[in-house]
Amino acid sequence: MKILVCISHVPDTTSKINFTDGDTKFDTNGVQFVINPNDEFGLTRAIWFQEQQGATVTVVNVGGPDTEPTLRKALAIGANEGIRINAQPTDGFFVATQLAEVVKQGGYDLVICGKESLDYNGGMVPGMLAALTGMNFVNSCIGLTVDGTTAKAVREIDGGKETLSASLPLIVGGQKGIVEEKDLRIPNMRGIMTARTKAINVLEPVGVTVETKAVKFERPAPKSAVKLFTVDNLDELVNALHTEAKVI
To answer: Could you read off the pLDDT of 200-239 as tens digits, one per residue?
Structure first.
C-alpha cells in the first residue's frame, strides 16, 4: 500500500503573531514552525500502517526551502521519502491543485490530509483534492483501518460518530482521534540521523490561476482587564454580573 501524507508548515501556537505591509502579510520573523497538528495525527496513523502492513509512506508539502526542516521531522518520525512542491501556498485551491498532480502521478492508494491547518483553518484542501482527483473522500476522520482494497473509516458528525466503508484509492481528512496524542512519535536520534539521508524530491509547481488574495489580517481584540471582588463584596459581584456582564 502506498500512502501519501500531506504536511502543512504552520506556526507553533506559542509564537507571537504579527503582520507587515499594512497588515496584509504574515510576519515570519521569530516564528517557530511545526508540522500541522492534524497532519501529525495522520502521519502517525500512516506510520502504523507502515509498521503493521508494510506500507510505504511519502510526505508532501507545498512551500519554499524554509519548509524542509518540517519535512525532515516527518522523515525522522518514519516516513520513507519526502516531496516538496517549490511554491508559496497562496490559497486552498492552489495547494490542492499542486497536491493533485502528485497524487495522479504517484498512484497512491491512500492520501491522508489534516482536515484543516492550524494557520488559516480553511478546511478546504482535502475536499478540493478529492474533487480534482476523483477519489473517494471521508472528512473529519477519527478512525481508520484498511483490509486489502477496502478501508473502514469513522468520522465525527454532529452528536455522534459515523462508520463508513470505502474502496481504495481514498482521501481522508484526519484529526485527533485517528490516533491519540499519546501515540504521537517523537523523533529519536536514530530517526534524526536516518532522515538526513532520505530523499526530498523538489518539484516545480503546475500553473494555477489564483482567484483569491488576502486583503487584510486583524488580531483579536485584547481581553479586558480582570475585575476582582473580595469575599466580603458579594453584592457588588452580583451587581456587576447583572449590570456590566449582563449574564444574570
So the answer is: 999 999 998 888 888 888 888 888 788 888 888 888 888 8
Say what the pTM is: 0.86
Strand partners, 62: 85
The model's pLDDT over 161-181, given as tens digits with 9 standing for 90+, comes to: 999 999 999 999 999 999 999
Whole-number pLDDT of residue 1: 95
**How far is 31 from 43, CA to CA, in rounded Å?**
23
- Residue bearing cell 494555477: 208
